[in-house]
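Long-time lurker. I teach an intro course on protein structure, and each term I like to show students one example going from raw sequence to a predicted 3D structure in token notation. This year I'd like something fresh instead of my usual example. Would anyone be willing to generate the tokens for the chain below so I can use it in lecture? Attribution to the forum is fine with me.
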Amino acid sequence: MTNNNMGWNLDNSYTKLPSSFYSKIGTNRVTKPKLEVFNDSLAEDLGLNIKDLKSHEGLSILTASKLAPGGCLIAQAYAGHQFGHFTMLGDGRALLIGEQINPKGERFDLHLKGSGRTPYSRGGDGLAPLSPMLREYLISEAMYGLGIPTSRSLAVISTGDKVYREEELDGAILTRVAKSHIRVGTFAYAANYSNKDELKTLADYTINRHFKDLKDTDNPYILLLKKVINLQANLIAKWQLVGFIHGVMNTDNMLISGETIDYGPCAFMDSYSPATVFSSIDRNGRYAYGNQPHIGGWNLARFAESLLPLLNEDEDKAMDIAQELLNDYPAIYEENWLDGMCLKLGILDRKKEDKGLAEDLLELMERYKSDFTNTFLGLTDCKYKSLDNSGLFKSQDFISWDKRWRSRDLSVETMKEHNPFIIPRNHLVEEALDYASRDGNYKKFNNLLELLKEPYNYRDIGKEYMMPQKNLDIPYRTFCGT
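-- Reply from a regular --
Happy to contribute to a lecture. Here you go:
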């Protein structure tokens, strides 16, 4: 019998949806669970008892070996457009153990990633190696520190079992925390495999969970589409402003809540180039840095398509409504991006010409192959210009741009609040993961994690944490971790 000294306050509202939206799963057995990383502050925010959750019984719950009090193991069904192609998917290696209601009354999904086979595994083993789970923990917490809406990570637990990929690897389970796991792909699943009533039930559930202010309006589904468009425009603008490249922007990786999810092939850009791609499976650059805003719009169009039966009974009118809202997306994205870019440049009194000022800087950065993060760091504080070896700051092109920029009334404090001092440099992430997953040495991982918690705290941390990898001629590649 599982006790509830751990602070569980779970609900299972998702199971009130039609049964076609999920599958109930039995408990799982792992050989030898061992806590590798644990997020004490997040556990506290969730109202969980840290000490008891780290006990053997707590680890049993976080590996799906036991049910949490009030919990119910389910795998969610959804579809997705993977690199543009529609596919039936679902939680193939993940389980929802319940929705924790924290002391503030906020609801969060607790999701186990790498927990084993489900009806949606499509021939896979449903397991996850340790290194990709540590990557998601590290990057998701870094994104949280950067102030970007994101799923978060509560724990990584090694299982004592082996996972077989190209080599034998240690298995692990990540506990992921999100406002929900309702995806664009969840709606695509409902639109393609369910009837209109079930689609409406999903939409009503989503509105009730995330957008209660829409409930009593004339057509809440139109406003739902409008709300999600705004959330995604804001989210992707924030990605662009820190040089984050998601790597796999399929519709099943796009949450309706507007949080970033799935940190498999993600990475951060070093030298600025809109064509930057890191993912080994993105051979044509569909999800390149410069394409992310466009792909966001493409994904939103798929969301709009799934909502058509609810927007208006007349299909033509429904399509007109959807198209009108989607037409607003580019301007909403640009407004979010330009607002953020002006803050990075310390410009508080935005003017019409500021778009050109920002775009001219980016053009120079691309031409000189200057580091994205360190260029803005050098603008924020001149002493960090020494981090740049591209020649940008010494060029006549930059000097001319700099005169235009400095003619404005600038706020250095604003720049410090919006230009990170440190990001998860790709080579540092790989080094930390390698030491942790292969040797069990978490010193580099923990040091990097602590620094990334305060990316806007300007302090002496050592140049090794601030410089890009030395040889950028060697292509950096990321993998999905499945």
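Some talking points for your students: The chain has a mean pLDDT of 95. The chain has 16 helices and twelve strands.
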